[in-house]
Specification:
The protein is an all-beta fold.
Amino acid sequence: MSPVLQHEHTLVPVTALATHDPLLYAGEGPYLRLYQTKNNYFLSTKQVFKSQSIHGVRVLPKSTHHVILILWGGFLVRALEIKISASDGGDQLEIESLQLSPTVRASDWILDLSICSHDNPKSSALTEAVCAAVTAHNALLELTIESVDDIQDRNDVSRPLRLRISDLTSSSRSILYAAHLLWESPNHVLIAAGTAFGEIILWSWTRGTGTISISRIHRVFLGHEGSVFGVCISNFPRKRQNEVSRRLLASCSDDRTIRIWDISGISIEETSPNSTHLETQRTRHTGFSNETLDSQISAPSCLAVGWGHASRVWTVDFLDIPGIDGTFIVSAAEDATSRLWEFVKKENGTHSGPENSPFTLAQLNSFACHNGKNIWSTTICRDPSGLMQLLSGAADGQITVASLNAVSQGHTVRSRPRVSEYSVQDIITLSQPSTDITALPHTTPSHKSSKLAEFFRSYAFVGGSSFILTTNSGKVYLETVRHQHDSSTTKVITNSRQLDDREDLLGYSVCTGESSVDIAFVVGSRGQIYVYKNGSLRTDPIFAVAGKVGSMFARRIDDHDMEDSHIILLITLVGQKNAQLLFVDIPTDPEKKSPTVSRAVSVPLPELQTGLVITSMAYVNTLGEVDYISLGFRRGSVAIYSISRNRATVHESQNDEASLMKIVEQVHGKETVTAMLFYPSSTESNEWTIRANGYLYSVGRDGHLSIHHIDFSANTVSLLHNLALPMGPNLEGLYHSMDSLMIFGFSSTKLILYNSTKEKEEMAVETGGAHRSWAFQPHDDGLTNTLVWTRASSMNVCVQERPSHQIIRHGGHGREIKAVAVSPPGVSGTIKRLIATGAEDTDIKIFEYPDHGTTTRRTLRKHTTGIQHLQWSDDGNYLFSSGGREEFYVWRIRVLAQFATVDVLAVCESVFEPEDKDSDLRITSFDVQRRDGAFLIAMVFSDSTIKISSYSPTAAHIWQTLAKGTYTTTCLTQCVFLSPPLLLTASTDGHTATWTLPSTTTHPHTSDTQTAEPLTWSHPAKLHQSSSKSMASVALSPETTLIVSGGDDCSLSFLVTEYQDTEPDRARRHPPIIVTRAHASAVTACAIVRHDESIFVITSGNDQWVRLWEVVPRLGDSTTAVADGDALEIRRVRKIKTNVADVSDMEVLDQGNEGARVLICGVGMEVIRIAWDA
């Protein structure tokens, strides 16, 4: 039997969303995916259309577990009946049946569809629903959904629904980009239509008697300076206290604005004696009005304009939910953000803006939950607790849910972080026993220029719900934070207590804490260190140092053989070349004495190499005779010390000193190393095995996360991972939580909490920037986080009880994928095969494909232009990437098994430097071969030049340019090594050329210096009328290579070359075989699969067809040519439609006896399975 093509996995833009408890419905390409809203659990997938993407979903509920969906896309409409049931426990739902109706085709592209919720007197007993739809040329259609009569159609049990579609009005001359319609009654429909010319046409349709109906234009709103992409009519008039009730229309546009229009007073039930004239007026309207000529229907300027999106706004929707006080709008845009707005009256009666309107659109929140560009779909729902949520689907294929602020039933439900602001006077008032915290007034901080002005100095968390703060006057306060939401107050501090008022803290104080043992330390300018243990009522002096303390760092030590807890406290002294490391014993028995310092160790600082400013610390408790400490410095270096475990008392430790082992320079370039963590690499079952080596995690103000492997016994340090994060550049801390590595820092004026394992933002709080006193504390539950910071002399406290958003379906790139490469089996000694994709968003993503679904493992961020080509090394340890501006990077990839937080490690090991730093050339393609331990790399450029270079990571000069050449004036697009001395290229002139490589390429890097030799081309062969867009090759024998090329002229070309040892600088080439009209568009991707003795070629292009070809070689021996025609026989085998638009590349994932899998990339990704014996 011949092979069969099957869809196995699809990840494309999410173009439609709808909810009806308990299910979420998401349209992704032609597929409808069902999720359970309670826990975001995926339930099922149903293919609705053959290839047409789903553009909209409307829900007709029949009961809690029975719904009918009306789905449309382009010209097509279909109904889906869904029946679900609950499991025995009731928490998990099961799909009982999914039954589709036949597909009906409308006369035009459908923009919006609405179900009539009113009883229609003309409906029959079999009518399930009557819908109205508006098209791209402003025509109104009626869609009737009927149940199949079992008596008349007994055999059609698999299709219980049928659709009938009819025209209510004819098309107009207008070209619409957006429309929204509402049923006012069974006989009246109100339509808002946004045109390509920036107008909004408000018109209505009224059903008359018999076959007569009336349609007319009520208003034409002018004001947008670009095409209108979204319109929405409010379901009912909006009214706030002491305001006139208004019905509103919202619109969004190419001009990046959101506008609100008043449509109050429009009556669509009015009849007119000249209905024919009104219909003529509507159909002749072009959507390009002149305000002077169309004065009768032109409307006044809008009520309010909202600015905030950075690019085109695609959708706008009212939060039309009864019981909400106020008018709220949600928008989504090309900038991959969705925003929440409120339509409010301007303060103080100011009348600025459009036509001096007294109203404005106030932005309440912004949600950046997607990658790249374009949020295509949004919907609003409520969670089980009644909290309103915004669901969004975007071009990255990701579905997210974010909580909204809403007012429901008279009380405020807040899901955003709760933020309270306090002045020093507020804290003093709170610390008084009689203070009622709910009645605390807001006071404006007073600014004083005196050095004795009272303000907040520093903060340190003592536990998950309490922190201490110091003031400029030397006072120390303990603050208790409310984590549970209380609707009766907006304040988050429940209690305040003054612990101390110390003279040596006057004017200067530093504090730090270790929340795991509920302890904090405070020090002033004189060097006296105080300790506070949670539960006590004061601070106690614990140790004194000679000099002014610059900073303190506290870490807990876990010793299984010790009864009490222990803290390592590092003290840095301003201007001194030694730091102090204190061992603090903390009794676990409350009846024992307070914490004491049992040992003090001097830490010498290598001033010349690192400087004297320590900025971070990591302590390594090896459970052996020697411990280690790593110190991070402001200059970007890390110093590693050894410390003997033979504990001397604090009185005997005058000569107790840490020994410097190694200095690792430029861990974060020249930027500050802000935080470090150490994880032992031991996988022994006994957790108390001596830890001789491990992994040092660090973040810095270069915006990078770095991971080094440290072998203490061998005193070696190797860099495993160094990547930029999307939240930088001021990364300030990291910690481990629930199998995820969490990193927090400042991006512009916000503090961001980022889950680097799941590559997801968890928290974003506006603070004003990094240059201020602040402290951050995660809660043990892994969800709640507390932030305290100083802004404008006030203390702000923020509590977030849940992540800023949740991901229902994980996505990928937010822009078009341009290149894909699959690692060979056994990468880095494991069985994992990694997929690397590069896109126009300049990111490279590393995926895995387990269990028929892609999982993002890592994102590589360094390129500044779109990715052009990707290729793995033969052992899978290196990934090579190219882009514009002659960017060529070499990535070292490692996969660590049984590593919880980061299992795919990557570091940009080298950069190929261009000859001209201002070059704008693209490296359109390259090929890599390993020769004598070095990598031979052939690169082709957009200016028709070619370079052959050698890369050896262990050589003194790691890069050597071995040869250069120029083709013609056309852009080179492809290159592939044919044999050790031969290279084949293709270009935009449709020809291939063969290049003979110099002898230096056979054994590269044999000397430290190498002069580039000239390259010349020969043996051109015409494959296409224009550009070669894709190329793949396979060895038919040690001497013979098959080359397949897809062209811009829709053709597919096959070329066979033979290499002979007797003529090493030449290749015998058979005449190319050209299959014309292989596709209906450019052939942009191709791949080759071998099965038994057969060769199969898979191709795809902009026509979105995937075609399978069988190639049968008909070659003679090495001395004779083919006697009777072509060297190959080409057969068309199968074809299937792909859901990926703008296909750019494809790669074979795996192949075996049962079948093969091919990954197709473009606007999204899709895996097509080839079943050999289906």
